[in-house]
Structure formats: structure tokens, C-alpha cells
Amino acid sequence: MPLLAERMSRAKPSAIMIVADKAKKLKAAGRDIISFSIGVPNFLPGAHVYAAAKEALDHDSGQYGSNRGSDALLDAIAHHFAESGLPGYERKNIVVGIGAKHALYNLAEALLDPGDEIVFPTPYWTSYYDIAEIVGAKITALPCPPAQNYKLMPDQLDRALASKPKVFLFGSPSNPTGMVYTREEIAALADVLVKHPDTWIICDDIYNRLVFDGVGYHNVLQFRPELRERTIVVDSISKTYGMPGWRVGFIAAPEKIAQALVTLNSNHITNLPEVVTAAAVAALTGPQDLTTQKRDEFAHKRDEVLATLNAIPGVRCPRPQGAFYAFPDISVAFGKKHGTTAINNDVDLCNALLDTKGVACVPGSAFGEPHALRISYTCKAAELTEGLKRIKGFFAELT
Description:
39% of the residues lie in helices and 13% in strands. It is α/β, with parallel strands linked by helices. The chain is globular and about 60 Å long.
């Protein structure tokens, strides 16, 4: 039998989706399951988005669209970036993708040859590692433990960039930790990046409208505009507007990079559908009050999550200030038992938590940090309270 391509030996399914699928199957079988696993915002966009989609259907041309994105969408994205504090991008700098994950994959293909080095902080979003492995890149993951609030330090970055890696990738707010770099922290990282001109910079900022506590969203370009010639900013409508299934991601980048992604789109996807484009334009240009409302709701849920975690002896969780994740260090449970089940690592804990309490969380090892687990707290308020109660009970039962 003919063989698969060698790269498929490096490809693996999403660890997050494995947990989510197991939870779905248990729920379908009649189990009372509360899922803190998958990172979906769990709200729907405003009525104006659906109205725009229906209007587009009524006037559907049935034709191919632009590989880059329609002019209306590109203009809406440029306005979105400007409103986020990143003005000056033109249509030639912007490209759409089928979600931010597709945009990141295209960037990996455009920037990384086999053996090229990519650097990113740990904990990391699972797809960073998976995509880099598929394209054959050399991966350098920089450990950022709870003691440093899961954040990359400037001296760490400086040392890592001394080897002239091809790409440096990071995000704020962070998935999986929910941590947000302050204005001063981003400025310090920008000062380091200026010193290393041989490295492309990818800012995965898809949670930039979901920042709490008045910290604000900041980007290295706001402090070091000279970095724009080698910085790519990734964003999407998925988290901000409750539209993950619509699959619209986009990047702002130097023209050379943007054109490379247009070329890849022409071979991969051709274009976004007209109805999806219309919905995305409406989301980006229409009322923004729903996003603000949901941001405030997530902040309140964050507070409830932290209150419960902080009440569990030995569990540590740096305070997340964005997105909708908490990433507690649960290693206090290692070496203990829940009933007759030994808890030796994060996977054991998450399996036992799901099997005995019906709560689905993602093991931290999926994100490069095996002492933790990820809680996505976007579920309904009553489910959140009950799920947290079950987690607290699980830890109380350890022996």
C-alpha cells in the first residue's frame, strides 16, 4: 500500500477537541456533564449580523470572490485594527482566512522552511506547537511558570532571540492562561525585539477586546513602530463577536507577507463565501455593545472561578485578566488518590474529574505545562457554579 506523506507522522489531532468530543459522547449517553473544555464564547452575535447574512443570501452572486477578501471586509478590518490602537493598515496589508488558525497555518507555510526555528512562550495554544511540527520547524518553547504569572520576561526573550530564530510568536490575552501583558510589559518586550532584526514577529491577539480590570490591550507596534516592517498581527471575529463557527480570521502585515498569504489562499480556499463576508462586515462595523457586555460578564465569571480555586488548599492560579480561561496549577493532587484512582499527573486528574464528577477540563500538558489544567468559563452561570462546586468537592476527596 502507498505511504502517507512523512509530515503526517508529525500531525496529531487537537488535544482540546479530544476532551470536548469525549464530553459530548458522555452527555449523549445520558451523563450529567459540565464542559469547561472547549474555548468557545457561548453567545450569539447581534441581530444585525444575521440581517446582513440574510440580505447577502437574497443577493447572492454565486461567483468566486477575492483571494484577499472583499474590499468591504478589508476596509472593515482596517477600521477594526485602527479602533484597537493599530491605525495605518491599508487593503494591501490585510488578508482573510478561514479562521485565525488557518491564517496561522498559512503564516507557517509562508515563513518557515523545515529546520527553521520558531520561538514561543509556554504555556502555549496547542495549535502553535502542532502547526510548527507539521511544517518541520525547530521549536523552542520558553518556560513561563506560575511564579512569573505565566508571562515571558524580557531577558528570556533576549536570550532566545540571540540564535536568530525565524519567527517569534506570542499572544496577549493568552490562551490558555488568560494572562494579559501590561503596557509596561509589552513595551519592555518591544525594546528587546528591536535589538533582533532577523526575526519575524507574530502577535496572536484574537482576544484583544476581552480584557478586564482596566488593563487595556497593548501591542509592540504601539511602542516601537519600526517593528511594523516585520510584525504580523492576527485577529478574528470568533471570540469577540460570538462567531467561531463562521470561520473568519485575518492578519495585518507588511505587504510582502500579505501577498504571500493571498497566493496561498488562491491555492487553498480561493475566497470566503459572500454570506460569511457580509456577516463579518456587519459584526466589525455594527454596534459593539454586545462585546462589551460579554466582556463584563466574563470578568464576573473569572472572579467566581478564582474565588473557588483560591479556596482549594495547594492550588495556585495567577489572576487572568482577559479572554475566558483560568489555568490553575493543580500539582498538589499528584501522588494522591481519588477513591481507588491514582492521580499521578494532569491527565489522570482530568480523566478522574470527568469520570467521577462529570466535569471536563483540558490537561495542561496539551499546552506544554503538565502541572496545570485549563478551565474555559463561558458556560451558563448555573453550570459554572455547579461545575466549580464539583471541582472543589473532587479535591476535598483526595487522599
